[in-house]
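Replying to the earlier thread about multi-chain prediction with a worked example.

Input:
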Amino acid sequence: MLSYFIKRLGLAAAIVSVAMFLLFCMIYLIPGDPASVALGPRATEEMRAALREKMGLNQPVLVQFWNFYIGAWTGDLGDEVLSGRPVTTVVFEQLPYTLALIVGGITWSVALGIPLGCWAAVSRGSWADRVVGILSVAVIAVPSFVIAIYALLIFAVELRWLPAIGAGEPGNLGDQLTHLILPSLAVGLGWVGYIARMVRASMLEVLEASHIRTARAFGLPDRTITYRYALSIAILPTVTLLGVGIGQMLSSAVFAEIVFARPGVGKLVYDAILTRNFPIVTGTVLITTVLFVLLNLLADLIIGALDPRVRSSF
Amino acid sequence: MSEAVSNPAPGRMAELWRPIRKILREPLGALGLFLVLFVIFGAVFADLLTGWDPVKINPRDRFQGPSSQHLMGTDQLGRDLFARVLHGGRIALFVALVSTAVSLGIGIILGLIAGYGPRWLDNLMILLFDAMKSFPTVMLALALVTLMGPSLTAVMVVVVLVTVPGYARIIRTQTIALKTSEYVTAAQSMGASSARILRVHILPNVIGPLVILASMDIPVVIGIEAGMSFLGLGVRPPTPSWGSILNDGFTNIRDTAWIAIAGGVPIIITTLGFTFLGETLRDVFDPRLKGR
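Result:
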């Protein structure tokens, strides 16, 4: 287990390093340098030169990359252009809101996806199975921002059941949770489909296993067999799926934050683009990428701990 | 075998018709094909289907509901939504077609190199693909647009960056599986160059699953274009895109729901259509890809 852990950690570090390199190349290769982008078209040449000097953009490329790389690993992603606050601080202030949204999305997708998947597997081949199948494909296909807008339109604007904007009153947990329902539905609905399909497929496999047959032979009730014995095994692949899913939910969260006017990293980057606050944009991209790689790592380690076959095949 | 794949003889309409019949036999596939053709028809014949100009502003007619005059109503500037939706379809299909083609081209080349090349290069490229995959899509899009400025090109660059790793990986896996097969070894021993082996012997055999995967990615691509246009990072106004219509609908959501409906429904129809079609294609022609 330890050698698997170390190898997997090394791979994650390598992926993050390459991602940093790609991000740096992108900044460097694309026409328009961050200093002019930040200052806007009306800036004088002296102002640009001064900001370039301050941001270290007049140094040789390799030195720039080295500073960027070392800085990133030590948590220094530079300072914001306008206020001069460290980018890391600004992003970490907003991150909890986004994570709450993603956790809400996972809650929706698990709470709806697992029962639907089980139901489809148990009633395999029936109309219920087909309906769940089609619904799963449908919610996966439709982009999350369309779901966000229509959720807003139906439940907040027309029916007025739930609040439309903001994250709720600080300190009032109930209010914050009510504000979380619609945006997290928009983030999680697509994943209901993925999870239902995954649970159905692995459930069908598990239901064929010999220990399930034995349990049947002993006359245990169907409910106990499905939810206690079969589901506890069939749920494993879902863990890996969620590891990947969180990265995509992060993308959906950006839209949900903008549509429902919630604070969070998505709103932060979006506003940063409008004010041309470039260090915030790269900093957020980097932090969310690291977060995504770490969550995938975590999912792999959990699976590795639960299933020895994964460890040996690595 | 490879010759037959690359040069279909003329006059074999029956051969072409057979896969379509297979798709039509599946209810979901038939529905998918119908929706896709419906959307393509609307985009191609946009100018014949409506007399309205999609960018003509007419403030006196703003915020109208659907009527015989304006089939889908009008937006906050009084522009005809039906015309905007049809012309928006052109943008969506154009982006989907062009960027998927570019992405397939790059993915095939990179995948063949990774699969057929030396081991170290393969490892390096896999690492590169994994790193590219680890950027959250929207974040990557936002970062790129900050530098490049909003444009259709930026949208297509994002699509290519997001989809290439997947195509390259599948080509790589298949190439590795084929490169030790007997007929490839035979070709090598007869002195065929690597380029010839890749082009004539490997490519025709690995391209099938890729086409299916690409067709399943089209809804994703359409989602990226609409999403970026929704955020104001895609096509520039007043050019209509489903995403920008949806954004107009969002901004004016308290005045009227019709704009949001006009922007969102085509996105739903198109993504569902392509997804149903892609799933059926996969199930009918390559069940091995199931579960991806």
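Chain B touches chain A through 45 residues (CB under 8 Å).

Feel free to reuse this layout for your own posts.
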